[in-house]
Amino acid sequence: MPQQKITHLCLVKITMELDPRFAQSLVDIVAAELNKNVNITNNHGVIIASFSKERVSHIHEAAARMLTSGPIREFSVTTNDESRLKGVRQGFNVPIMFGDGCVGVIGVTGVPDTAAPYARLAAKFVEAALESNARQEKLVRALKEKEELQSILLNKIISVQEEERKKISRELHDETSQALTSIIVGLRVLSEHVQSEGEREKILEMRDLAVKTLEDVHHLAVQLRPALLDDLGLVAATQKYIENYSRQYNIPLELNVLNLSRERFRPEIEITLYRILQEALTNIAKHASATQVMVTLKKQRTKLILIIKDNGMGFNADILSGVGSDTCLGIHGMHERIALLSGEFYIDSAEGEGTVITVEIPLKRHKKAESGLGQAH
Ligand SMILES: Nc1ncnc2c1ncn2[C@@H]1O[C@H](COP(=O)(O)OP(=O)(O)O)[C@@H](O)[C@H]1O
Ligand SMILES: [Mg+2]
Q1: CA distance 191 to 186
Q2: What is the pLDDT of residues 95-122, one digit of tens each?
Q3: Matching Gene3D superfamilies, A to Z (predicted)?
Q4: How far is the CA of 205 from the centre of ligand 2 (A)?
């Protein structure tokens, strides 16, 4: 048995009669007090209800002996002890066994025979509560570890996905677009060399198709990963995206950039805000039937804030947590990405009253989970 220090002695005074209500109140006291002492270790005892130190000091000694010398046994304080040891009341003491040893003592004052069942009951109760606390702590720890692992994996997935998009986008731009441009030029030259009008028309039709394909490829490359975001940063990429969006969907859009110039932020912050802007504006085009959209991007001391507001039909935000919420992947995705950067994400929407999405990202790095993010950029 390792050396144990008893820091508190637990005493509960009882009446001489066996009162069932007493047992209940004993249990209640133990439960209430134990909640304050959930983090019990082998070096600390349990406070349950203690009288003044002087009054318990002698029993303290006896209990300390019980804690340091094995095997642990219950012990009682008799009438003899009571008269011999000043301030000590008769009682019965039971060790609280937990883990590898004894972590405290339950002492009940009264005639030893009467006090014994209560002391044993209280000790059993404390032991059960300690077990349950330990189990719960273990579960909480396991859950936390799992959540951390999930964030790390999510981080990794996002980084790899972004890197892949960047690669494909570059390839579309550098290879496919160049090849299409050569085809377009070649077809124009060819059209000038054929004799028949019919053939020339066919070649020009093909050229128009190639021009259209080039536009599509360009659009796809920008959607995948705008080079502007990497080259000139968030503000420039946002301005460009909004300009194209407004033209494509014919929705009037106001952009306010406050307290921001063309400064650069960490790549993961820039790409996260850009992806949220993309998703939120796509949602507006898909679901909102809005006639006015306002986007605000601002820096406020230690954080970047993005607000996307529309005057469309809105929606009941309960759908996000209710049954079938796994279909709201766009919004959940925004949420997850923000959480990885220790940011805040709010949706304020009601049917018929438009939608406001607010995102706040701290500029300083916070979590362990963030450490791997952005490496792939
Ligand atoms: N700006 C908006 N206006 C109205 N409804 C919206 C808006 N944004 C999202 N919603 C609603 O929230 C749902 C979930 O959005 P999302 O998670 O992006 O999934 P998805 O776009 O694939 O349906 C949408 O189906 C739509 O009903
Ligand atoms: Mg969506």
Answers
A1: 9
A2: 777 777 766 677 776 778 877 877 787 7
A3: 1.20.5.1930, Histidine kinase-like ATPase, C-terminal domain (3.30.565.10)
A4: 36
251 lines ligand 1 (CB under 6 A): no
Ligand 2 centroid to Cα of residue 117, in Å, is: 64
| Dist. CA 274 → ligand 1 center (Å) | 18
- Domains observed in the chain: 10-150 (3.30.450), 228-377 (3.30.565.10)
Give the ligand whose atoms come closest to the C-alpha of residue 282. Answer: 2
What's the rounded Cα separation, in Å, for the pair 249 and 287? 13
Counting as low any pLDDT under 70, the low residues of the chain are 1-73, 85-89, 102-104, 109, 322-326, 366-377
| Closest C-alpha among 110, 215, 236, 125 to residue 173 | 215
Ligand 1 contact via 286 beta carbon (within 6 Å):
yes
